[in-house]
Amino acid sequence: MLDWDDLRFYLAIARHGSLSAAAKELGVAQSTVGRRLASLETTLGVRLLNRTPEGYVPTLAGEEVRRQSEMVEAEAQALLRNVGGRDTRMAGTVRVTCAETVATHVLAPCLASLHTLHPDISIDLIPNPRELSLSMREADISVRLKAPD
Asked: How many angstroms separate the Cα of 3 from the Cα of each of 8, 43, 44, 93?
């Protein structure tokens, strides 16, 4: 069975041309990089790199593995960008009710800087003289100039 992590090691060797440079990039020992390359070649049943005086050079099969591994790497990075931290990221819609003058003169100017800091938060500002019910989820936040009932 293919160990996906072996592809990462292979890409580092193919990009840098040496086990030592790949090891440095990955923060592991050179022997570890060599073992991971051997593991990948054994799993695939093909030689991926030729050792030359200039360093390691991909074989034809190695070029194909490199191309496909770079696609896997790109998809893994996209996954991290799109999903990573989603549970801790501040996002969603917040409904805020308040008097029209408070909305216009106090809250609206603040919302631009909030949007800059947290672009995934959408504020639905509801200027309404009537108090909307928080318990009935008519609003999430109510800003009033009197004590609540």
From this structure: 10, 9, 11, 41
CATH topology of domain 4-83: Arc Repressor Mutant, subunit A (1.10.10)
Distance CA 121, CA 7 (A): 37
Arithmetic mean of pLDDT over the chain: 89
Q: How confident is the model at residue 31 (pLDDT cuts 50, 70, 90)?
A: very high
92-143 has which fold? Answer: D-Maltodextrin-Binding Protein; domain 2 (3.40.190)
Q: Please list the residue range(s) of the chain that carry CATH number 1.10.10.10.
A: 4-83
- The CA-atom distances, in angstroms, between 89 and each of 5, 55, 112 are 27, 44, 19
Provide mean pLDDT across the span 86-108. Answer: 83
Tokens in use for 131? 């108090």
